[in-house]
Amino acid sequence: MRLTVSLAAVIAAGALAGCGAGATAGEDFDDQEQQVAEAIGSFQEAAQRRDTAEICRRMFTPELAKRLANGSSCEREIELAIRDIDAASISVTDVAVEGTSATAQVQGPAGEGSSGVFELVKRGETWRIEDYRPKEGADS
């Protein structure tokens, strides 16, 4: 399996684990933090719909989409990554915003490989996913 597919699979596993409502449940989030959590929720919903074009063109930064494509297309790599992944539950447990950069800590059920950190950047009024780092020791 190519490295890009592995990265896409990790990102997709984080996305497919649950619905947007779970991602936006942070009662203590301020406005900017809530927007970040909602971006993760929207990403999860698009992944559940298998809307790879929406994910690659509107939710990822162009740099991440290009990195995932690596000679193919972002849409194709995400499609391959999510085709056999089932949905589970996930929640955004913490969000940190610094200017136009943010991190969102996510927690999935044990053994799902969906615990980690999404890195986002604000482009205009929209938060876009720039990267995903699985939690050390999480299945991937």
Strand arrangement within the widest β-sheet reads 1-2-3-4
Please identify, by name, the CATH architecture. Roll
What CATH calls the topology is Nuclear Transport Factor 2, Chain: A
Mean pLDDT: 78
Radius of gyration: 14 Å
Give the tally of β-strands: 4
CATH class: Alpha Beta
Number of helices: 6
Shape: globular
The ordered H/E elements are HHHHHHEEEE
Major beta-sheet overview: 4 strands, antiparallel
| Approximate strand percentage | 15-25%
Considering DSSP H and I runs of 4 or more, what fraction of the residues is helical?
A: 40-55%
> Separation of termini?
13 Å
Indicate the low-confidence ranges by residue numbers: 1-6, 18-25
Would you kindly provide a written description of the structure presented here, covering whatever features stand out?
This protein has helices at residues 3-16, 20-23, 31-48, 52-59, 62-69, 74-82, and strands spanning 91-98, 101-107, 116-123, 126-134. A four-stranded antiparallel beta sheet has the order 1-2-3-4. The longest helix is centred in the first third of the chain and has 18 residues, at 31-48. With 140 residues, it is α+β, with helices and mostly antiparallel strands.
